[in-house]
Amino acid sequence: MDRFSIEELNLMCIYDTGTRSRLIAGLEKIALELAPEDEELAELVQSALKKLMAMSDQEYEELTLVEYVIAF
Length: 72
What we know:
Blueprint: H1 6-15, H2 20-33, H3 39-54, H4 57-62
Helix pairs in contact: 1-3, 2-3
């Protein structure tokens, strides 16, 4: 399986819902809502989805998705 890019990991952190299947569902929903001018984001979402669908739940659980919160 291809490794996730930094951009894909960032996207996954934003939409992470705790499980691979819920993350896939969330990204699929976002993909349907993107405007035609969001082509770059659409490609990123599709790339992440392809990799997520190719992995097992156990492989997903081994990923470290960390959300960074910056306080101003």
